[in-house]
Amino acid sequence: MCNELKLPLFRAVKRVGRYYSAYKKYEWSGIHVLVDDFSSRMLVFDIDVPWDVKGIRYILYMSTQKWYITPSKVEPKIRKVKKYYERYKYGANVYRAIIAERWTSGAEELARSSGVPLRKFKHVKKDMVKYFSKRLSGLLASLRGKRLYGEMVFLVWLLQEILKELGALDVEPLFKDVTDVVRAVENGVDVPSDIAS
């Protein structure tokens, strides 16, 4: 489950990172795994977004329980996520959740009221898509009819590649390939006035 979540992001970041690192003249890794501990079921990682003071941080408890999670079973999971949240809440926009297969309505209500929702894996993926789609659409809307160049090119490209890897790029990509990206970084590119409309 962890790999299903991480690998699409790693592929997108690796593709962009090679060129962004050369542009910035330092090694940009893009994803920082802070915790990946099977024994504690915790996964904490950052996505460092170009041109963004704060990236996004995911703090996730990956439950392996096959049967329904009850309120008494969800409480220690909530406490664990909160513990990691207190440790890693600074310097990023934070998404936190308990990923599980089944739960009772009582457990769902308790988790929701605590600020650590219960989510199925597919829903966490949808939340990721929603976040990055909103970022890309909003960015493209703000750039309509303007000229894009330099570091902002990498921001658009990264968001575009993440959504493509997640199978959810629902807008016409601004960059079809690396050649388009390199050309835009060096010479700029006019953003169509009807993009993402």
Oligomeric state of the chains in view? single chain
CATH architecture of the domain at 27-120: 3-Layer(aba) Sandwich
State the share of residues found in helices, binned by percent.
40-55%
* Shape by Cα distribution: elongated
Note poorly predicted spans. Answer: none
Description:
With about 200 residues, this protein is an alpha/beta fold. It has a domain at about 25-120: Trna Endonuclease, Chain: A, domain 1, CATH 3.40.1350. Helices cover about 50% and strands about 20% of the residues. It is built from six helices and seven strands. The chain has helices at about 1-25, 70-90, 105-115, 120-145, 150-165, 180-185; strands spanning about 30-35, 40-45, 55-60, 90-100, 120, 145-150, 190. A five-stranded mixed sheet has the order 1-2-3-4-5, sandwiched between helices. It has a two-stranded antiparallel ribbon with strand order 6-7. Strand 3 (about 55-60), helix 2 (about 70-90) and strand 4 (about 90-100) form a beta-alpha-beta unit. Helix 1 runs antiparallel to helix 5 (about 150-165). The longest helix has 23 residues, at about 1-25. It is elongated, with a radius of gyration of 19 Å. The mean pLDDT is about 90.
Topology:
Layout: H1 2-24, E1 31-37, E2 42-47, E3 55-62, H2 71-88, E4 92-99, H3 105-114, E5 118-119, H4 121-143, E6 147-148, H5 151-165, H6 178-187, E7 189-190
Parallel strand pairs: 3-4, 4-5
Antiparallel strand pairs: 1-2, 2-3, 6-7
Helix pairs in contact: 1-5, 2-3, 4-5
Short description:
This protein has about 200 residues and is an alpha/beta fold.
